[in-house]
Amino acid sequence: MRFAEALAQRPLVLDGGLSNQLEAAGHDLSDALWSARLLADEPAAVEAAHRAYYEAGAEVAVTASYQATYEGFARHGIDAGRTRELLSLSVELARRAGAGPGREVWVAASAGPYGAMLADGSEYRGRYGLSVDALERFHRPRLETLAAAGPDVLALETVPDTDEARALLRAVRGLGVPAWLSYSVAGDRTRAGQPLREAFALAADADEVVAVGVNCCSPQDAGPAVALAARITGKPVVVYPNSGETWDAMTRSWRGPTRFSAGQAQAWRAAGARLIGGCCRVGPTTIAEVARELGAGRPGA
């Protein structure tokens, strides 16, 4: 079944944070390439992380290509040809992890923001000083490669501002693969401070975009954003917030309590969410609880 058709039938369960699952398995992600490094060094680890989420009940796997870019790999001595192979491999690993009898699953090819390639925290600020045209030129080659690898959907995720959203919406035109657009937010604004009402409106008339929403944000900010995205765009909403803990850059550790509850999934669903999962620090155990809340895989669920 095509991804958009499945989305029209019922809510789908997304996976959780790939990085925390890899770290839980003992892998060091302190490198600037983050989880993308393992595409080259330990692809079996990436496949195993995807499989853990599928086994927990996730129906959609987001690939390990969030921080995988031509420019980023080039800084580490990886040429364009090998980068194409690794981007394609990210889709293959997610597909292979979900192969076999049982439920139907889908693969979302991740395209993180420009700031993710910089690895300096600017992905949570946006406003890089680049034009929309320049950002489109940055994103298009990677998106072309990911689309050619045959994912079910492109995940344009953790987008911090409207300039980058405009660039991404241009960059996915004509690729022949549907996309979702997901902002990282603080309250009712993008990370760059623009009103979410304006940010969501950019995708309302984009035929390529099958879902709009938020990720990598506080669970408390997710609920109002879901309702707003549904109202502004009339499209299915995607939501996958963080655990609610706060990242301390000085100590390179997470602090504070977990605020993500699987019980929130029903409220998000009622507000218009059709793709529901977790981002940083949300692991397979929590995704299994979300799947139970949503009755994942059951006809009519």
Uncertain ranges: none
End-to-end Cα distance, whole Å, is 16 Å
Q: Helix segment count?
A: 13
Radius of gyration: 17 Å
Q: Care to count the β-strands?
A: 12
Largest sheet: 8 strands, parallel
Roughly what is the average pLDDT, rounded to an integer? 92
Q: Return the structural class.
A: alpha/beta
Shape: globular
Spatial strand arrangement across the major sheet: 1-12-9-8-5-4-3-2
* Relative strand content: 15-25%
Element pattern in H and E:
HEHHHEHHEHHEHEEEHEHEEEHEH
Query: Helicity, in percent?
Result: 40-55%
In brief, what are we looking at here?
The protein has helices spanning 3-9, 18-24, 37-41, 43-56, 70-74, 80-97, 114-118, 132-148, 162-171, 196-201, 219-233, 264-271, 284-294, and strands at residues 12-13, 60-62, 106-111, 153-159, 179-183, 185-186, 189-190, 209-215, 237-240, 246-248, 253-255, 273-276. It is α/β, with parallel strands linked by helices.
